[in-house]
Structure formats: C-alpha cells, structure tokens
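Researcher: Go.
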Amino acid sequence: MSAKLIVFYNNESQLEFDRSKTPSVSQLAYLDKMDAKMQQGIEIQDDFFPDPDPLHRARFVAMEMIRAILHQDETAAAAACTYLAYRIPDLKAVKAFDSEGGGINIELAFDKDYANQVKVHFDLQ
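Model: Structure:
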C-alpha cells in the first residue's frame, strides 16, 4: 500500500491524502454509508451497474471527487478521497483530464508512486 494518494487534474496536483493517518470512527461510518448507497447500483457514463465491483465504485467515487474539486466542495472532495484511499489501498493516483469533447477523462493509476510536483516558471526573454 502506498503511503499517499495523489489527485491530479490536468496534470496539476489537487489533493494529497496521507494514508498513515487513521480515520475517525465517524469517517469510517460515513465510508460504510457510501458503500451501502452504491450497493443499490451506480451509473457511470450512461452505463448502470446494479452490483458494482470495487473498481466500478472507485471510478464512480473518483468522478464525484473531481466534480467536487471543480465546484470547490472541499468536504465532498475530502470524503471521496478518503473513500478511495482506504477502500482501494493499491490506488496511487487519480488523474483527470479535460477531454476534447467537453467531458472529463479519469484514470486510476496503480503502477507507481507519485512525488510532489513543483511548478517552475521560466522567463525566456
């Protein structure tokens, strides 16, 4: 399990979640409520999944998290990030990109840990 889960939007880090911090009892209860609600079925890009597996749930929660980030809903974004960090322990990063068609593409990365990014500005005059 990776120590951090990092969320990127258009290659810029938006959230970093430290898995070494133990969630509170109320946070764990909220994750259970999220699972119970998703057990009733979820819709991902016009496809309905009546009995979603963990990867379907991860994709769904990642989409909701990116929506929350874009709408500056920090509470919803944090809850979704917490869900992904603890329910999908091998997930290392969520990478979201604007697509040419106006939507958002989301990739779940399990392959490598991501380090903090530093934006550097070069003045080429």
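Model: The chain has one domain: 4-109.
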